[in-house]
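ligand=FE2/S2 (inorganic) cluster
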Amino acid sequence: MPSFFIDADISKAKTIDTDFYTQQKFFEAAKEKIFAPSWQFIGDAGRIKESGDAYPFILLENYLNEPLLLTKGKQQSIHCLSNVCTHRGNLVVYEPCKLNQLKCRYHGRLFGLDGKFISMPEFKEVQDFPTKEDDLHQLPLFTWGNLLFTSLDKQYKATDFLSEMIQRVEWFPVHDLQFRSELSRDYPVEANWALYCENYLEGFHIPFVHAGLNQVLDFGEYSTEVFRYSNLQLGIGKKGDVCFDLPSTSPDHGKEVAAYYFWVFPNMMFNFYPWGLSVNIVEPLEVSNCRVRFLTYVSDESKLAKGAGSGLDVVELEDEEVVQNVQKGIRSRFYKYGRYSVKREQGTHHFHSLIAEFMQ
Ligand code: FES
Ligand SMILES: [Fe+2]
């Protein structure tokens, strides 16, 4: 498989080869090379409020397709487990429910809420049984406030990806966030998942694509900071706009911050506004199709629909249109790569560099 290369010097670098967005083999390879080792947002603890609650879900349905299960155990501990029975691979829990134990409906194998094997009918004669292999596979779980994250393998710690964000907004009321389904929605986008991400990764297009957003953000002050597996775009508000009231301990104290736009490799966006948090997850579906989930978490109702974090629907549709047109453009025989603005496209350069690193 050919490898991708991105020059570390943005002033010399060329963007990633368009094959990455158009070829099935790279779309497939990214499953194990990029997505399996990364950390993924899996919703909030409201899904499993009480002891005995079980919530089955598929991690990145239509892509990774990994059946997982969140449970709340007796001691209020949260577990993230494989939802696949260790006998013949049936799904253990079919829909959200409340249980004392997990009982597989196929042949009756019983597990605790922590995934530990308890019993199995008709298995008396089986040798070396049970072993640890008969427990449901336990995945690492990371919680930040009410927000939950997991990873399919143990290559990286969650903090490798998330700590810069958590530290930067440590004053943010993450424990008060309430999920609002009526303010959340999914958008189908006819473009490769990475094209959607890289559109998010530069504010360069804001004056051209988002007339409304451009009226509340001060484009001249807009900045990008690059970390190891994440980056931050700081949206500075224009005079008189709704901004954060930042504590003196914040490195941004004294600035008129209207929004923190954190992107976490490979496909997660955490947009902090004075009213709360908009989480965007880009889910790959096909090589030229993805689904973007906008999940809305409110902490201060009184600030909703004000400032940079209002009209997100309009901004999304404007982004969608341009990204879909780029997907059509990059199929061209005449376009293979482009160059980066040193001042305005550090985020895109960072993203491409990480893709090249993980696809090795
Ligand atoms: S598949 Fe679960 S008990 Fe057989
Ligand atoms: Fe945009």
